[in-house]
Specification:
Length: 321
């Protein structure tokens, strides 16, 4: 399923700052860490939850989750890259939906709300809102040390994600671009990089992209209006687990076909360490070639998933880190 420890939101040093805020809110702060621990052990669950609610549960930007693991030489003794190189190899089934960011950007009931555009604001969303987000959370001056460099990076990101603006660009066009940006930075890029690194170190990795999506899964909430097109985050849930993280909906013939595909591939993967099916040989990623299965009504093996996006971000990070 979608997600990777390589993502900014999954593991970062931000948790230290946020944890200190909680400790101070509960009057447990001290220069002696052991005294903090003793104090925190006396705090009830209700008191802890009240502190969380008062301080907030998410932040805006690319790292909306406040409390995450971190590389601390204790629970995580080494970087994820080092651990992948050293850990025993096991088969990996990994993948994501074609438009992961939709649920993170426009879904009104999303709990992690740091990237959400409220429904009432979606109808007026435009390029200025997108470019302001890029300026504030992808290329702020404090990241790069100078206004000129920050502006250059901002322009590069804007041009990559909004290089095909039609004359009649409406709110749906800009929400789609915003959702793609969040998809790439939060899910796609880190997960693809993780899969490639595993493959380079001889892990058997089988990758997919979910392209099929029944828009009845958002029909009740959006009344037939589709602000973002593509398969949303967790769109596999109805077929694997029998419930939807979006709206509930009745299966049509295509849904039953997709469910059969999902259940059989997972069964084969669990039994054999390989998700291949009769009529579909699922190749593992190699050092030389990134092949994946595009999950449609007729699933097919394809090559080079989002290679342009990966090249763009890799070069940007290497040149401006």
């Amino acid at each position: 399923m979608s997600g990777s420890p390589f993502a900014e939101w999954a593991a970062s040093e931000y948790v230290v700052e946020e944890s200190i805020k909680v400790v101070k809110e509960l009057n447990c702060f001290d220069s002696d860490v052991n005294k903090i621990k003793l104090c925190m052990k006396k705090i009830s669950i209700d008191e802890l939850q009240s502190a969380y609610e008062k301080l907030g549960t998410t932040r805006p930007g690319l790292s909306p989750i406040l409390y995450t693991p971190r590389i601390d030489d204790d629970f995580l003794p080494k970087t994820f890259e080092e651990l992948i190189k050293e850990a025993p190899r096991k088969a990996i089934l990994s993948g994501f939906a074609s438009q992961e960011g939709a649920k993170l950007t426009v879904w009104p009931r999303q709990l992690v709300r740091g990237q959400i555009i409220p429904r009432e604001e979606q109808f007026t969303y435009d390029g200025n809102r997108l470019f302001e987000f890029i300026k504030n959370y992808i290329s702020p001056e404090e990241y790069f040390g100078s206004e000129a460099t920050a502006k250059k990076v901002q322009t590069m990101v804007e041009e990559f994600y909004a290089n095909d603006i039609p004359q009649n660009a409406d709110y749906k066009f800009w929400l789609q671009k915003y959702s793609q940006l969040i998809s790439d930075t939060s899910i796609n890029m880190p997960q693809l990089e993780e899969a490639k690194l595993r493959a380079e170190h001889d892990w058997p990795v089988y990758f997919y992209q979910t392209a099929y999506f029944n828009y009845d899964a958002i029909k009740e909430t959006f009344k037939g209006d589709h602000p973002v097109k593509g398969a949303w985050h967790l769109s596999e849930y109805p077929y694997l687990f029998g419930f939807s993280s979006l709206d509930q909906f009745e299966f049509n013939e295509n849904d039953w076909t997709i469910q059969k595909f999902w259940l059989e591939l997972v069964e084969n993967f669990v039994k054999n360490g390989n998700p291949s099916l009769p009529g579909l040989t699922w190749p593992r990623i190699s050092k030389e070639k990134f092949q994946f299965v595009n999950v449609t009504i007729e699933p097919v093996v394809e090559n080079d998933l989002m290679s342009d996006m990966l090249t763009f971000w890799k070069e940007l990070i290497e040149n401006y880190r």
